[in-house]
Amino acid sequence: MALRSSGLVLMLSVVAYLVNPRWMRWSRLDLPAPLRWSGAGLGAVSLALTLWIFRTIGKNITSTVETREEHELVTGGPYRWVRHPLYTVGTSFFVLLGIVAANWFMGLASLSVLVMLLIRLPKEEEKLIERFGDEYRAYIERTGRLLPRIKRD
């Protein structure tokens, strides 16, 4: 419930900004134009990454922590390096949108959604272990949760 509420607040702030930026003026930041343009460029990259993620996961995506009988463990594409790339890229996109809009509330709402996801992740991974067992445990050992794992020799 908290995750959906945080997500709704985030989406409403984005819609409010898009409909009439003056509605969100109360949370404006004074950011330099080069930073905002960099945010736009990185945001475009994150959209391309999102397409790659959705193409890779295919029918295996759900809006809950539950898995279905027909689900397969996806470990290719962006999932080769990160177990939850959609969470990483999605959060990054909305933080970058807050930078482009020069709006601290959008950035804070994005981070709030990330906190809710971090709270949800252990339960989600528990369900994946129940469904895929040792295969998922081995996957955990070789990949990072939200960022690629740095191997130490």
CATH topology: Four Helix Bundle (Hemerythrin (Met), subunit A)
**Strand-pairing-aware structural class:** mainly alpha
- State the end-to-end CA separation: 42 Å
Order of helices and strands: HHHHH
Helix content: 55-70%
- Basic shape: elongated
> What fraction of residues sit in β-strands?
under 5%
**What Rg do the Cα atoms give?**
17 Å
Tell me, rounded to a whole number, the average pLDDT. Answer: 90
CATH architecture: Up-down Bundle
Please count the helical segments.
5
Q: Give the assembly state of these chains.
A: single chain
> What count of structural domains?
1
Number of strands: 0
- Please describe the biggest sheet, giving its number of strands, its sense, and whether it closes into a barrel: none
Q: Could you name the CATH class?
A: Mainly Alpha
Q: Low-confidence runs (pLDDT<50, min 5 residues)?
A: none
Offer a few descriptive terms.
153 residues; mainly alpha; Four Helix Bundle (Hemerythrin (Met), subunit A); 63% helix
What does this structure look like?
It contains five helices and no strands. With 153 residues, the chain is mainly α. It has a single domain, classed as Four Helix Bundle (Hemerythrin (Met), subunit A) (Up-down Bundle). Helix 1 runs antiparallel to helix 4 (104-132). It starts with a helix and ends in an 11-residue tail after the last helix. The mean pLDDT is 90.
